[in-house]
Amino acid sequence: MANKKSTKTPAKAKKSDKKPGLIARGKAYMASVRSEMKRVVWPTKNELVNYTVAVCASLIVVGVSIAVLDLVISEGLVLFASLRG
After folding, report:
1. pLDDT tens readout for residues 31-82
2. Scanning 3, 43, 78, 84, which has the fewest C-beta atoms within 10 Å of its C-beta?
3. Residue partners of 84: CB distance under 8 A and separation at least 6
4. Which residues contact residue 25 at a Cβ distance below 8 angstroms, ignoring those fewer than 6 apart?
5. Confidence class of residue 83 from pLDDT cuts 50, 70 and 90?
């Protein structure tokens, strides 16, 4: 029989691929954060004010809508159940 391949597992390589320590991982993480923060396109002051006003106006509209809907539903339930004295 010609050239049979060995079924033995190869010898394990030395553990040179050790996980870096906590400090090294922390430094690498902070370097990556710094790199990403340099790529961020920050809004201008005018854009920031406009976005803030839009969010506040949206919150007021949604809040009033929910309050009105709650009032209508609760009044409807009171009238439907004849709970009013």
Report:
1. 999 999 999 999 999 999 999 999 999 999 999 999 999 999 998 888 888 7
2. 3
3. 78
4. 19
5. low
Both tokens assigned to 23: 């400090």
pLDDT at residue number 2: 60
13 token code pair? 């390589």
Tokens of 16: 């040179």
Total residue length of the chain: 85
Residue 51 near residue 45 (C-beta atoms within 8 A): no
Rounded distance between C-alpha atoms, residue 20 and residue 36, angstroms: 22
Query: Which tokens is 69 given?
Result: 């809907």
- Largest interatomic CA distance in the chain: 102
